[in-house]
Amino acid sequence: MLRHFLRIEIDNELLTAMAERWRPETHTFHLPEGEMTITLKDVAILTGLPIYGDAIIGSTTKPGGGWGPLIRDRLGFDMPTTTPNQGRGHPPLNAGQVSVPWLVSHIQQEVEINDETPEEQVERYARIYLIGLVGGFLFPDKSNRWIQGIWLPLLTGDWDAIGEKSWGSAVLAGVYRELCTCSRVGAKQAGAAMFIVQLWVWEHLPMFAPLDPRPYRRNDDELNLLQNLPYGVK
């Protein structure tokens, strides 16, 4: 369901205005009408992310052999640790981070999935896509070029275990933390899933929502298919 949110155009001016009204002491927006904040209920309804289940916890240090062996064992391919193109650009693995451009280009070089594609290969593609979606969209860094390696162990295990974790609470915690960082003097960029802040503003402060929501839709037939998707998609 998260892929539908990739089409939202981020309103940087709106997010900047909200960050300026965020108070780290109370984790609330100070507005003329009073204090308001984003709750777990908002995250669950707007995004559909689960807010119950196991907490998102794990080690923040890379394993003894680095992330390369884990990627090879879980995803089935090797990632070079040196910079391609004769030293220009960034290496695919750098200080516990995985390069998003390299991951995307690697997928594009593979054959397309069809009915005859082995199940193991389909699962491998699904894990790569999930790593990119979670590490690059729900928990992005400020450059949008790197995925933190700490997400790899959480997303390369048992499928059922992945879906039973409380991703919504972790995302909300990340948004709170980033808003606290952005509210400081001198802050210039933001990471985290800031699209949630924008959806929340559109819902609770409708005067800032688009006057005509149709540009964010595709067609009426697709809207009928989206009836069971989160409210934020609509």
TrEMBL record:
Q: Which InterPro entries match?
A: AminoTfrase-like_pln_mobile, MAIN-like
- GO BP, sorted A to Z: meristem maintenance
Domain of life, per lineage:
Eukaryota
Residue intervals of the Aminotransferase-like plant mobile domain: 7-211
Checking Pfam families in the record gives: PMD
Tell me the PANTHER family matching this sequence.
PROTEIN MAIN-LIKE 2 (PTHR46033), PROTEIN MAINTENANCE OF MERISTEMS-LIKE (PTHR46033:SF8)
Protein's name in the database: Aminotransferase-like plant mobile domain-containing protein
Per the UniProt record, the source organism is Linum trigynum
